[in-house]
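Field reference: sequence -> structure
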Amino acid sequence: MENPASLKNTRNENPRGIMELQSDSGSFSVDKARLAALVKNKNHEILGELGGVEGIISILRTNPVVGIHGSPQDLHHRRKTFGDNTFRRARVHWFVDILKAIEVCRLVIVLRNGLMQQILYKKLVVGDVVYLKKGDKVPADGLFLDGHSLELDESKITGLKEEQTLPKMEKVDNSNPFLSAGAEVVDGHGTMIVTSVGRNTMCYRSKGEIYSRESTLLESKTKYLEAYLKKIKWVVSFSYLPISLGRYFSGNVRDDNGNRMFIYGETSVLYVSYDIVEIILAMTAISIAMDTSSFTWAIKFNIARAINKLKADNVIVKKISSLEKACIRYCRNSD
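Structure field:
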């Protein structure tokens, strides 16, 4: 018979009653679509069918005190089954590229194999136990495990209703355990278990289609200007070669001492070869220097700075076109 004191200690160490971290092998008894519907609809019925939060913990083979196993095999298996915490679209608005780049560089605190550690946002997997505090953004859809006075602002996901002037705060506890990716923690702290990541999150479904469909004025003008600069680039590059060769063989190109670099019948073939290679290298350098991607990246860099400023000022923007206008206004004011 076991010592009651040892049982008491075990319960204190593991309040959910999960005695040990389960193996990272084998298939999961729930699919990602059902887990996605759980948080999307805040569906207590599905939660009850899966055995509540405790049942989800068991199904996802995790532990609120120890976290997931976290071995390479375990992480690979979870990503293969439930997907990873990245966003892929066939056609993505270039603004989303900037937002995504900023997003994936965020660090989140997780519990893996009994150790608290910081990982990149994109490395999060289903089953991870994540620690949240005031000012954090919920990194994925999930369920509340434990905490104190945890309140979320979901207006950046759902937007404000017409009759609302201020964001509505959502209190999260055992009676309302649903957390949506993208919501901001405005008060309290707590831990959550990740149930959906990446394209299966509510944040992706609510914003992804808008971002992928909407074509804005700045985007169309940038594409037009980029195409125009490409044409100029190729015209300059390819016209440089025949003009330079013509000047060289006509004897109009001179060295630093003022001597003609090419004299018919006198200049050796080797020197002519060297000079032609130099002309081709110069043409290549011009082509590289006129690369239009640097122009696009210059715009993206300034827009990224503006987005970070808007985020710091807690500006809520519902549409990409509005975000572009706000960023352009900020860039003008900061110059």
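Note: Residues 1-23, 160-165, 208-214 have pLDDT under 50 and may be disordered.
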